[in-house]
Amino acid sequence: MSQVHVKRASLFYLVFVMYSYTTGGPFGLEAQVSTAGPGMALLYFLVVPFFWCIPMSLVAAELTTAMPVEGGFYRWVRAAFGDFWGFLAGWWNWSAGFLLCSAYAVIFSDYLTFWFPRIAGWRHYAVSLGLIGAIAYVNIRGIQMVGRLATALEVFALSPVVALCLLSLPKWRCNPFSPFVPPARPPFQVFGVGLALALWAYSGYEQLSSVAEEVENPQRSYPRALAWVVPLSIATYFFPTLCSLAALGNWQDWKTGYFADAASAIGGPWLGAWLALAAAVTSVAILNSTMLTSTRMPFVMAEDGYLPASLTRLHPRFGTPWIAILFSAIIYGLFAWQSLTQLISVYIWLRIGTSVLTFLAAWQLRRKRPELSRPFQIPWGRNGLAYVVGAPLAMSGVALLGSDRYGVRWGPLALLLGPIAYLVFRRRPAAT
């Protein structure tokens, strides 16, 4: 992207874009409390990061400082294992973006029906399309605009969450960890479903590496941004859940969207309405950041000759891959016709596939490219490297074994489409 001047994002905006992609807010995980149990859910929020997002953050920090290139993890995997595995990392990530971006556009429209019940059918779809179009325009304007929007949305979305926590303190009367798991439920089923949700909550810490060339001093900014975002994400999930359970204790009633009900019970209808609006805003923030990261995949893969060269075209004013952004937005719009709740379980398979390749790339590049300059290095030597690779691999296996029936049926098929796509696209000449 060097041939066109690009306005780069500072550390401040990078933190908010990364946070809005990886976390956004505590919304969407409420069902984990009733499914896995309040004690297990709270434990997941505290423990899973040490086996998933903290290792990924260390890997992303080391490899971004060593190879701060557009495409990030896709090109790390390609450098480590060759064209085939690099292609899979990029393709699986791009495919996961179809599901995730479409889902958050639909979720936003679903939230609006709370205030505007007539938003149904074609109107619901039109709102989803309108949101996708608006966010595509923001992304074409560049990462600075994406960062400004992410900052404004997150400040608004987190304000009622902070209010909820503070107002709950005088009302604490219940043990938030009791019961630890739901009575009379198979332990492994509880463990597996809850773990899959926790991995989804703590995924994506390598994703902003795909826009490394659009960030000011990425070798310094990325490790610092990760150091801010990881603890902030843990706090975002843990404290609102802890405070609400301690004040209300009705863990059986928790379902998607329950934080608005909890806010109404703790602070009154005004806080409930504010939190419901914050949840809708959060879906916009996540869509905004997800579109930024996922639309760089077709751009860099086209640069490497796998996809049509037209996807490498940059906007003459903003220097962004506007054709790749528009093409991806069209696909998001096609998927947004109906609810994609079930397809989130398929998304988990694609996300785990991409993440596993990224973890293994850190290990392989230590062996293959020991001379590579690494301003930030995973600490604790070989033991640290074994930790950041081994812990997530074990966690991934357990999560996939615990997948629901829909995910087990369609997740492997979604992964299999990657090798098929490679056979179709691998012979394309490199873009010029």
Describe it:
This protein is mainly α. Helices cover 70% and strands 0% of the residues. It has 17 helices and no strands. It has helices spanning 11-22, 31-36, 38-51, 53-66, 73-81, 83-112, 122-141, 143-168, 187-201, 218-248, 258-267, 269-294, 296-303, 322-335, 343-368, 381-401, 405-425. Helix 4 runs antiparallel to helix 10. It is globular and about 60 Å long. The mean pLDDT is 88.
What is the CA-based Rg, rounded?
A: 21 Å
Uncertain ranges: none
Structure annotation, total helices = 17
Give the helix/strand class.
mainly alpha
Query: Can you give the mean pLDDT?
Result: 88
Biggest sheet details: none
C-alpha end-to-end distance: 13 Å
Explain the layout of strands and helices.
Elements (H helix, E strand, L loop, with lengths): L10 H12 L8 H6 L1 H14 L1 H14 L6 H9 L1 H30 L9 H20 L1 H26 L18 H15 L16 H31 L9 H10 L1 H26 L1 H8 L18 H14 L7 H26 L12 H21 L3 H21 L7
Helix pairs in contact: 1-8, 1-10, 1-12, 3-9, 3-10, 4-10, 4-15, 4-16, 5-6, 5-15, 6-7, 6-12, 6-14, 6-15, 6-17, 7-8, 7-12, 7-14, 8-10, 8-11, 8-12, 9-16, 10-11, 11-12, 15-16, 15-17
Briefly characterize the structure:
With 432 residues, the chain is an all-alpha fold. Helix content is 70%, strand content 0%.
